[in-house]
Design goal:
By secondary structure, this protein is α/β, with parallel strands linked by helices. It contains 23 helices and 23 strands.
C-alpha cells in the first residue's frame, strides 16, 4: 500500500477523517512512500466504523463525504435535558432555510406526531466546523420534561427531523446507610446439582443478612454457551439480555411432580455422579445433566395451556421468543452464527420457537430464570440486595451481535493498549459498540441491557467504565499494539444510565481501575456514580501512606475477580504464575517479587500505625482482617469482602490473558454453605466488619454529602 507523491497531505487527510469520526490517534513520521502499519490499522478502524476507505489515497474523498453527512444533520439524534430542563437545542440548516417558519414539538419516544407545534425563531450561533452554505442556530424551548425519554421534532423547509430527548436526573441514587457485603462466585457454591443456583443466592443473602451484611455480589449470571459451541466466560456472554439456565434450581421447577420423565431423570443415580466433587466445576457436564431434567419439563409445560404469568412475561419481554429461536438454531447447527447460511446469518429464522423441542426449552428456561430471580425485585432500601456486573461486551457469536448487528462495529475488537502487565496489549475478542449507530437508534440496545440487570439487581457495576468516554479498538487481523481509541458521547451515556437507575432506585458502580483519564472520574463524581477502590491496586511501598483512605464515593474491596486472592497476593503466587505462563520473564518476576516484599512491609507498618494490627502478628490472615477493618471504618459508601479470602483461599477464579490453559471461572468453594455458617472464623470476621461498619456513625454524614 503506497501513499503516492503526497504522503504529508495523505496523513493530514487521515488525521482529519479520524478527528471527524472521533478517533483519537497520533501520527508518526513515515519513511519513504510507505504507509506505516499504525496508519493501516487506523484505516482498518475507520472501515469498521463503516467509512468507505480502502487505502490512504481514499482519505480526501472520505473526508468530504463525512463533512457532507455531518452538515446535513439538522439536529443531533440524541439530546440531554439534565433534571428535565431543556432550555435550548441547536439545529443546522442550509442558508435560506431559516427564512421560512420553523416549528418544534414534543411527543412520546415512539410516536411520530407531536402533541402540539410551537413556532420558534432560531438565533445564529458560532460553529467553526460548519460547511459553507449552512447555518448553525440556537432555538430556545424553555421546556420542563418529566424524567424519561421524549421525542423532539423540528420541522423546517428541509423537512421534519427528530431527536430523542433524555430527561435525566443529574445524579444517580446513592446507597442508604453504610451497607457492606460479600462477593461469592455462584458457580463455586457446593451443591448436589453440580453448581450453586438461584435458590442458593437467597440462602446466601439470608445468612449474610443475619450477620449485618446487605449486599451480595457475584459474577455475571447472564446467558453463556455451555454446549457445542462452548464459551463459558461470564464476561463474554451469549447475551446481555437473558439469563444463564446453568443456575436454575431444577428441584424447585414448577410441574416437576406431574412430569414422569423429569422425575425419572432426577432419580437416575448417574445424573449428578461426580459433578459435586473436586476443586473445579465441570460446566459442560453439569449443564447437560440439568438439561436432562429441564427438557421434559419444557415439553410438559407447552403441552398444556401456559399460565397467565407466563403470558404476562412474554408480553413484557417479547424478544425472548426471538432469542429462543436463535438458541435453537445454535443447538441444531452446533456452530457460531457466522458460519450459517446467508439468510440465517443475516437474521432470517423461519418458524416459531414453540415449534421444536429446543425452542420450547429455551423459552421455558428463560421463564424459569425469571421466576427464580423475581424475588429480588422487592427491595425497600437503595443499595441493598443483589450486586451484578454488566460486562463490557458480548461474545462475537452472541445473540446480541447477531440480532443487533447495527449497534456493533463487527470489523474490530475491543481491548486495551500495552501496559506493564500486558506489554503487547489485549484484544478481548468481542466487537465494540458503534458510537454513532447506538445514538441513531436511541441507545435502545444498551438501555435494554441495563434494564435487564436492574430488574433484579440493586447494585450494578459497569465493567470498564472508561468505555462511556472512549474505548480502545483493534481492527480485525491486527495485533493489539495497533489499536486506537474511539470516543463516545459520555453525557448521553450517563443520562441513559441515570434514567434507568433512578427508575428503580439502583446504585451504579463504575470499574475505573488502572490508567483512567481524569475527566472520567470527574464525570462519575458529578453524576454520583461510585468508583472502585481496591486494596491490591491502591497499595504503595510507603509505610506512612501505604493505603490511601477510600472516599465516600467508592465501593471498596480488597481484590476483584481478575486479581489474585489475598493469600495468593501476599505470597506472590500471581508473580510465579505469570512467569510460569510466559507472560513475564525471570528478570521481571524477580523485580515484581521485590516490589511485593516492599508492599508487604509497607502495608504491615501502615496497619500497625492505625492500631489495626497487633505488633508481631503479621501473618496473611491477621493482615486480611486488618485490611477489612480499615475498609469498614472508612468513608467508603459500600464495602465488599471476598468470601474465599476469609479462609485464605489461594487459587484465583480468573487469570486475565489466559484461556484453555487455565480452569478460569470454575473454582469450587472449599466449604459448603452449612459448613460456612458453622465456622466461627468466618462468622467472627463478618461480625467484626459489621461492628466497625455500624459504629462509625459520623461517616454517614460524609457519605450523605457525596449523595448530594
Amino acid at each position: 500500500m503506497t501513499s503516492g507523491r503526497r504522503p504529508a497531505a495523505t496523513r493530514r487527510d487521515l488525521r482529519e477523517l479520524a478527528r471527524l469520526c472521533d478517533v483519537q490517534t497520533s501520527f508518526r513520521s513515515i519513511g519513504g512512500a510507505r504507509v506505516s502499519s499504525r496508519d493501516e490499522a487506523l484505516i482498518g478502524v475507520l472501515r469498521a466504523m463503516g467509512k468507505e476507505i480502502d487505502g490512504p489515497n481514499d482519505a480526501p474523498e472520505a473526508v468530504a463525504a463525512e463533512r457532507w453527512d455531518l452538515a446535513r444533520r439538522v439536529i443531533e439524534p440524541v439530546t440531554v435535558a439534565w433534571d428535565g430542563r431543556l432550555e435550548a437545542v441547536h439545529i443546522q440548516l442550509p442558508s435560506g432555510a431559516t427564512d421560512t417558519p420553523i416549528r418544534i414539538g414534543f411527543a412520546e419516544p415512539d410516536e411520530e406526531e407531536p402533541q402540539a407545534w410551537n413556532r420558534v425563531d432560531p438565533v445564529p450561533s458560532p460553529n467553526p466546523g460548519a460547511l459553507p452554505g449552512f447555518v448553525f442556530s440556537r432555538v430556545s424551548t424553555d421546556q420542563r420534561l418529566e424524567a424519561g425519554y421524549h421525542r423532539l421534532f423540528v420541522e423546517s423547509a428541509v423537512g421534519r427531523h427528530s431527536s430523542l430527548v433524555m430527561a435525566a436526573p443529574r445524579r444517580l441514587p446513592a446507597p442508604v446507610g453504610r451497607p457492606w457485603g460479600l462477593f461469592v462466585p455462584l458457580h463455586g457454591v457446593r451443591s448436589a446439582q453440580g453448581v450453586g443456583g438461584y435458590g442458593d443466592l437467597e440462602r446466601l443473602y439470608g445468612w449474610l443478612h443475619d450477620h449485618g451484611g446487605r449486599v451480595l455480589a457475584t459474577l455475571p449470571l447472564l446467558a453463556t454457551f455451555l454446549g457445542d459451541p462452548f464459551e463459558p466466560s461470564p464476561y463474554s456472554p451469549a447475551s446481555r439480555l437473558f439469563w444463564n439456565e446453568l443456575y436454575l434450581d431444577v428441584v424447585r421447577a414448577p410441574g416437576l411432580e406431574a412430569c414422569p420423565e423429569a422425575h425419572a431423570a432426577l432419580r437416575d443415580p448417574a445424573l449428578w455422579r461426580g459433578l459435586d466433587r473436586g476443586p473445579f466445576v465441570d460446566l459442560e457436564a453439569t449443564m447437560a445433566a440439568k438439561r436432562r431434567v429441564l427438557e421434559p419439563l419444557a415439553h410438559a409445560f407447552f403441552s398444556g395451556d401456559p399460565p397467565p404469568r407466563y403470558r404476562a412475561f412474554l408480553a413484557e419481554r417479547p424478544d425472548v421468543r426471538d432469542y429462543a429461536r436463535f438458541r435453537a438454531e445454535v443447538d441444531r447447527r452446533r456452530s457460531w452464527w457466522s458460519a450459517w447460511p446467508e439468510a440465517e446469518r443475516d437474521g432470517e429464522l423461519g418458524g416459531d420457537p414453540e415449534d421444536d423441542d429446543s425452542g420450547r426449552y429455551h423459552l421455558f428456561v428463560q421463564w424459569l430464570a425469571h421466576r427464580q430471580l423475581e424475588g429480588w425485585t422487592d427491595r425497600s432500601t437503595t443499595g441493598e440486595g443483589l450486586y451484578l456486573d454488566l460486562p463490557l461486551g458480548a461474545s462475537a457469536g452472541s445473540y446480541d451481535v447477531w440480532r443487533h448487528r447495527g449497534a456493533f462495529a463487527t470489523g474490530a475488537s475491543a481491548g486495551a493498549p500495552a501496559d506493564a502487565f500486558f506489554p503487547h496489549g489485549q484484544a478481548w475478542g468481542f466487537p465494540p459498540l458503534h458510537p454513532e449507530r447506538v445514538r441513531e437508534d436511541g441507545y435502545r440496545y444498551p438501555i435494554a441491557c441495563l434494564r435487564n440487570l436492574l430488574r433484579y439487581a440493586s447494585v450494578v457495576r459497569l465493567d470498564h467504565v472508561m468505555s462511556l468516554h472512549r474505548l480502545y479498538w483493534i481492527p480485525a487481523q491486527f495485533p493489539a499494539e495497533l489499536g486506537v481509541y474511539v470516543r463516545y458521547r459520555p453525557e448521553e451515556w450517563y443520562a441513559a444510565i441515570s434514567i434507568e437507575a433512578n427508575r428503580v432506585g439502583g446504585v451504579v458502580v463504575g470499574e475505573d481501575l488502572g490508567t483512567v483519564p481524569r475527566e472520567v472520574r470527574v464525570a462519575m463524581r458529578r453524576h454520583g456514580m461510585l468508583g472502585s477502590y481496591v486494596v491490591q491496586l491502591e497499595a504503595r511501598p510507603d509505610p506512612g501512606r501505604a493505603l490511601p483512605d477510600p472516599s465516600a464515593g467508592a465501593l471498596a474491596t480488597v481484590n476483584t475477580h481478575d486479581l489474585p486472592m489475598w493469600a495468593g497476593f501476599w505470597e506472590g503466587d500471581d508473580v510465579v504464575l505469570s512467569r510460569d505462563l510466559g507472560i513475564i520473564g525471570e528478570n521481571q518476576a524477580a523485580e515484581r517479587h521485590a516490589e511485593r516484599r516492599a508492599l508487604r512491609e509497607a502495608i504491615t507498618a501502615f496497619l500497625s500505625s492505625r492500631d489495626l494490627l497487633e505488633a508481631g502478628h503479621a501473618d496473611s490472615g491477621r493482615l486480611l482482617d486488618a485490611c477489612l477493618l480499615f475498609l469498614a471504618g472508612s468513608d467508603a459508601s459500600v464495602v465488599v469482602a471476598t468470601l474465599e479470602d476469609l479462609w485464605l483461599e489461594r487459587r484465583p477464579q480468573n487469570v486475565p490473558g489466559t484461556g484453555a490453559e487455565r480452569p478460569n471461572w470454575r473454582g469450587r468453594l472449599a466449604f459448603t454453605l452449612d459448613e460456612l455458617a458453622a465456622d466461627p472464623h468466618v462468622t467472627d470476621a463478618l461480625s467484626r466488619i459489621d461492628r466497625v461498619r455500624s459504629s462509625h456513625r459520623d461517616i454517614t454524614e460524609r457519605t450523605a454529602r457525596f449523595a448530594r
